[in-house]
Amino acid sequence: MREAAGPLEPTLESFYRDHRSWLESWLRGRLGNAWDAADLSQDTFVKVLASQHSEPLASLREPRAYLLTVGKRLLINHYQRRNVEQAYLQALATLPEHVIPSPEQRWVLLETLQALDELLDALPLPVRRAFLWAQLEGLSYAQIAERLQVCERTVKRYMAQAYTHCLMVEL
């Protein structure tokens, strides 16, 4: 027989029991498959429980709205990751067979690409565009300024913001 639970445990259990199937059903409708929906549902509850210090479950007036917000963010991350993986796999398909990385190397590369995607996603869109155009396409600040329809000084500020963001995340 189970011993008496701590003060939060019944709340956690009932929160999960009351909302898991609803959330999983909502995610299944968005994803089109039960396996990813179950994974994202579980991830949503893990995120909610991990953030309990800032938003205790007992203080939630609309728990489903809160779960939906967290679930939507995870769903967006899921789709972004899938897009990154698809782009990477398409790029791999164009490589000669002798230079295709091993499955372990591919996993490391995908994880790195996902981390970069998340890092850059936190930047405002014009800053992200300026940074990517400079880094991937080798555009000059003048060319970037023309594309963004801003002055070169603004592009320099964008680039400084992007570099600072990258350095701060690394720390």
Percent range of helical residues:
over 70%
Terminal-residue CA separation: 48 Å
Q: Could you tell me the radius of gyration in angstroms?
A: 22 Å
Number of strands: 0
CATH fold call of the domain at 1-97 = Rna Polymerase Sigma Factor, Chain: A
Quaternary organization: single chain
Structural class: mainly alpha
Q: Which percent band covers the strand fraction?
A: under 5%
Biggest sheet descriptor: none
Looking at the overall shape, the CATH architecture of the domain at 1-97 is Orthogonal Bundle
- The string of secondary-structure elements, in order, is HHHHHHH
Sum up the overall morphology in one term.
Answer: globular
Average pLDDT over all residues = 84
Q: State the CATH class of the domain at 1-97.
A: Mainly Alpha
Low-confidence stretches: 1-5
* Alpha plus pi helix count: 7
Set down the secondary structure blueprint.
Elements: H1 9-31, H2 34-50, H3 63-93, H4 103-121, H5 125-136, H6 141-148, H7 152-170
Question: What are the defining features of this structure?
Answer:
171 residues, mainly alpha, Rna Polymerase Sigma Factor, Chain: A, 7 helices, disordered N terminus
Please describe what this structure looks like.
By secondary structure, the chain is mainly alpha-helical. It has a domain at 1-97: Orthogonal Bundle (Rna Polymerase Sigma Factor, Chain: A), CATH 1.10.1740. Helix content is 75%, strand content 0%. It is built from 7 helices and no strands. It has helices at residues 9-31, 34-50, 63-93, 103-121, 125-136, 141-148, 152-170. Helix 1 runs antiparallel to helix 2 (34-50) and helix 2 crosses helix 3 (63-93). The chain is globular, with a radius of gyration of 22 Å. The model is unreliable at 1-5 (pLDDT under 50).
